[in-house]
Amino acid sequence: IFIASDSIESELYIIKEVKGKRTHRARVQYLVSYVGYGEEYDQWDDFSNLKSIEHVKELISQYNKQRPRKA
Fold first, then answer.
1. Who has greater pLDDT, 40 or 55?
2. What residues are paired with 54 via a beta bridge?
3. Quick one: CA dihedral 47, 50, 54, 55, positive or negative?
4. 19-32 as b/e: b if 16+ CB within 10 A
5. CB-CB contact of 32 with 17 (8 Å)
6. Which residue intervals of 1-71 are DSSP H helices?
7. Which residues does 48 contact at the CB level (< 8 Å), separation at least 6?
8. pLDDT tens-digit map of 2-28
């Protein structure tokens, strides 16, 4: 389980699920949801911030397996 720390508020967030993927300003981003928070708190985060976190890498892999491939 990934626990992200928001340095401004010093709160911890646990990423529950990867819900989407996009490219924004030439960066790959994933839409992530958090344990204990509703959909209104889902947010896009750069892959570069997520790729080194083992649990999140597993969630991204699961998300990619569930997506239909483009022809």
1. 40
2. none
3. negative
4. eeeeeeeeeebbbb
5. yes
6. 47-50, 54-66
7. 27
8. 545 454 455 667 889 999 999 999 999
